[in-house]
Write a structure and sequence with these properties.
The protein is an alpha/beta fold and 229 residues long. The chain has a single domain, classed as SGNH hydrolase (Rossmann fold). It is built from 8 helices and 6 strands, in the order E-E-H-H-E-H-H-E-H-H-E-H-E-H. It has a 6-stranded mixed beta sheet, with helices on both faces. Helix 6 packs parallel to helix 7. The longest helix is centred in the C-terminal third of the chain and has 18 residues. It is globular and about 50 Å long.
């Protein structure tokens, strides 16, 4: 996994800290099905659910509706002939603590697969690694107990956080993936972070084209788990 993001912009990552003022990168959105009209009872969508569960990187902060990575993921899954419904369960500004607190809202979707993407905001705030690891591990345990397949999205931090903290932070994802036999996306923003043409003006979040590339990182790990009907 490439650790050097280039500029220290990286993980302002989910960079939507909850304690920032209004009209900054902390605008939050409720989880919702991506790129899907609300079905009537007669046309309810019964496809198995893939939950994109995370913070602003999943929520699609800063891009127009229809241009988040979960939106593009739905299109790519459809294009390849798989029958799944992607539900965006990302909320900007969420930490691992927030994710754990709302795990039941994701469970209520009855997902068959969850792409678990948390930790960036923890790292930016200097949350002790043990706390972030414990929260992520609890989410993993809840999902696995329900029989949900988890794809874990790895993160890293800017160089100014220091090599010791960065190594410990990255190890959260590597260790949990190994312990629980989880498919791991080594770094969700691989090939996107640090590339000005693929990032928004804040230098933090992918733009629409960057989100499209993120889908490639996701599909490399996700596709072996998908079944064609």
């Amino acid at each position: 996994m490439k650790l050097i993001y280039g500029l220290s912009i990286l993980l302002l990552l989910a960079g939507c800290g909850r304690d920032q003022p209004k009209n900054t990168v902390d605008e939050r959105r409720a989880p919702q099905a991506v790129a899907q009209p609300v079905p009537t009872r007669a046309e309810a969508d019964h496809r198995p659910v893939i939950g994109a569960f995370g913070d602003s990187l999943s929520a699609g902060f800063g891009v127009d509706p229809g241009y988040s990575y979960p939106d593009y993921l739905q299109k790519e899954i459809d294009r390849r002939g798989y029958q799944y419904r992607v539900v965006n369960a990302g909320i900007s500004g969420d930490t691992t603590t927030d994710g754990l607190e709302r795990i039941q809202t994701v469970m209520a979707l009855k997902p068959v697969i969850v792409i678990l993407e948390f930790g960036g905001n923890d790292g930016l705030r200097g949350v002790p690694v043990e706390s972030s690891r414990a929260n992520l591990e609890q989410m993993v345990l809840v999902l696995q107990k329900a029989g949900v397949q988890i794809v874990l999205a790895g993160m890293t931090l800017p160089p100014n956080y220091g090599p010791e903290y960065i190594r410990a932070f990255q190890a959260i994802y590597e260790d949990l993936a190994k312990k629980y036999k989880l498919p791991l996306i080594p770094f969700l923003l691989e090939g996107v972070g640090g590339h000005a043409g693929l990032m928004q003006r804040d230098g933090i979040h992918p733009n629409a084209e960057g989100s499209r590339i993120v889908v490639g990182n996701v599909m490399r790990v996700l596709e072996p788990l998908l079944l064609k009907k």
